[in-house]
């Protein structure tokens, strides 16, 4: 400006540089930014956290030409790159070893200690190791048992043998107890240690006035009259010599005995047999024979009875058998036989089967005045004369064909049945070939396999190919499984059928306001003018092509540049040589 354009307009007068120093130029200005700012007017705060300077997951907080790292627990330092040694203050007690962790530590305790800092002495008495009520004193990784009297050993488990000194005299047996012993003395001795001779008469063992005489380890009793036994305890048995004869019973009395005679005997000792024939009991000239406690009469021929008092009847002995009638004809008899019997006493069963009346091998069973026929299988009738048709009576089931046989029948069964009468449906599942856990359903001469999901075929042996319907999209391969399939997806796809295009932009941030465009197994950042790189992280250097001429200095900016021209040059790229004479500055 100026009359002669001699005054350079100061473009810095409006203070265009927000956070920088303004340098005036010809028809322009240049901002030299304070550290931490950038941009044409130094208005953009440089993000010092963009390069992720903080380590170990720390949070970066941007400042002006600086940043601050908020460290996670367990880390320190400007960049959080120093792991804090939690073992440094020696937190572990009782000489335990400290192992440093991230934001933590672990104390490895020595034997006998426990707790987070090994500060607790483990109570070794907690499991009650002392036996027999011993008192436990806890130590460091040890314990001591204070034993009660009578016990010893580390755990008071040993009962002290009080018999070790052999305290029992005179062959007494020592029985050990707890802090004591007991002497079991041999016969004849007493006392704590079996040292005292025992008076066997002190207990007055002799009974019924007997006199006791003490001896070593024994005694002797002198009994009064009428008593006997070691202790005179038994009254003398006068029956011991068996004074009674002929089976009589002896009854002992205080100084004597009494015999109770059996029938037919008498006397003090039952030595005399009584003569029952003395009263002549047999009549009609019968002869009497004396017996013990009785007699026998031998009668004349025509008499009978105990005393021969009755006349004899030949029929009295019932000589006729099988219900025959006896007629008395002394000295003989006559038997009148019923139908079917014969012989003098009607004892013979007349043989009705002698004529072999039964046909077709039937067995004749003789009766009383009659017979019956037991027929072979296949025949019937009173004389087994009729052959039975078993097919008419029983027959075959389930369409079986019946053939009558001698004494039976045969069934020719249709397929799927067996048994005597074709009554059994053959279980075709017993030998079935159903595989892969399928259920077998029995039919008639056949079976059906109910296959589990994923299998097919008559025996379920065929694995259904779930890949046959081509379910996989965007896949490299379909793998057939049992009742399922698995798709191997191409890069960039996911989902059961690889139907989902993975959003590769989900975990990507395009810098500097770049726009992310998802692709297949990849992405593209559409960078704004002035930036490049995979995530638009590179500021394009517009000065790289040296656009400033005439030794001008190039200043790079976002998507632009500016040239600081040498004196005498102007233009965007300092391409104009200023004609200082154009305004005729020279006067006079």
Walk me through the topology.
Blueprint: E1 20-25, E2 28-33, E3 37-38, E4 44-45, E5 59-62, E6 67-70, E7 75-76, E8 82-83, E9 97-101, E10 104-108, E11 113-114, E12 120-121, E13 135-138, E14 143-146, E15 151-152, E16 158-159, E17 173-177, E18 180-184, E19 189-190, E20 196-197, E21 211-215, E22 218-222, E23 227-228, E24 234-235, E25 249-252, E26 257-260, E27 265-266, E28 272-273, E29 287-291, E30 294-298, E31 303-304, E32 310-311, E33 325-329, E34 332-336, E35 341-342, E36 348-349, E37 363-366, E38 371-374, E39 379-380, E40 386-387, H1 390-393, E41 401-405, E42 408-412, E43 417-418, E44 424-425, E45 439-442, E46 447-450, E47 455-456, E48 462-463, E49 475-481, E50 484-489, E51 493-494, E52 500-501, E53 515-518, E54 523-526, E55 531-532, E56 538-539, E57 553-557, E58 560-564, E59 569-570, E60 576-577
Antiparallel strand pairs: 1-2, 3-4, 5-6, 7-8, 9-10, 11-12, 13-14, 15-16, 17-18, 19-20, 21-22, 23-24, 25-26, 27-28, 29-30, 31-32, 33-34, 35-36, 37-38, 39-40, 41-42, 43-44, 45-46, 47-48, 49-50, 51-52, 53-54, 55-56, 57-58, 59-60
